[in-house]
Amino acid sequence: MIKSKNQMFLVIALFTLVLIVGGVTYSFFNYTRTGAANTLKVGRISFISRQNETINLTNLFPIDPTETGIMDDATKVGTLEIEIEGDTDYSEGVEYLISTVNSQVTTGAGKTVPISLDVTVTDLGTPSDSYFTARNSKNATIYKRLSGNSIVGDQQLLVGYIKPNTQSGTVEGISGSITIKAYIDKNNRR
């Protein structure tokens, strides 16, 4: 029997202590992990692309791209350069995709005209026709052009893969560019 306030506080304190120790012990010994262990690694991924302008094809007339000097005439051909720099310590490498957005030319009669492209790739790795299987080996910096010589509407133009650095913390990736020249080809009629 509890005869004083001190005994009552002592009994309450002991009861509380038993609850806390029992609860923590139960929680501690009841922990189970399901599934594989998770691993979190932090590595270096550096990817920079620069594009300062867009191609705007307004009031252009169809041209013959084989004419001497015509592809350098800014009034007849829209030009865009995309600079890409990248490297990574991530074991899976880095993949990038270049796409067109809002890319259509429509005549006054509402007919969509195909846009012809001249794409030049510089220092972005090796072109690969078997890109989608070759990237799985993760041992080469490669790219593949996805579009043909003309587009109608939004399309994917080029996909690239940057292989992982061979030594962690070193910069071994790419530093190159893609130059896109867009024009209306008089020989390409739909």
Describe this structure in words.
The chain is α+β, with helices and mostly antiparallel strands and about 190 residues long. About 15% of the residues lie in helices and about 30% in strands. It has 2 helices and 11 strands. The protein has a 5-stranded antiparallel β-sheet, with no helix packed on it. It has a 4-stranded mixed β-sheet with strand order 3-10-8-7, with no helix packed on it. Helix 2 links the parallel strand 7 and strand 8 (about 140-145). The protein is elongated and about 110 Å long.
In short:
The protein has 190 residues and is α+β, with helices and mostly antiparallel strands. It has helices at residues 5-29, 131-134, and strands at 45-50, 78-88, 94-99, 105-106, 112-113, 115-122, 126-127, 142-145, 150-151, 156-162, 174-183.
Number of helices: 2
Regions with little confidence, pLDDT below 50 for 5+ residues: 26-31
Strand proportion, as a percent range, falls in: 25-35%
Q: Helix and strand succession?
A: HEEEEEEEHEEEE
- Rg, rounded, reads 31 Å
Which structural class should the secondary elements be placed in? alpha+beta
Please provide the count of β strands: 11
| N- to C-terminal distance | 102 Å
Kindly list the characteristics that best describe this protein:
single chain, 190 residues, alpha+beta, 5-stranded antiparallel beta sheet, 4-stranded mixed beta sheet, 11 strands, 15% helix, 32% strand
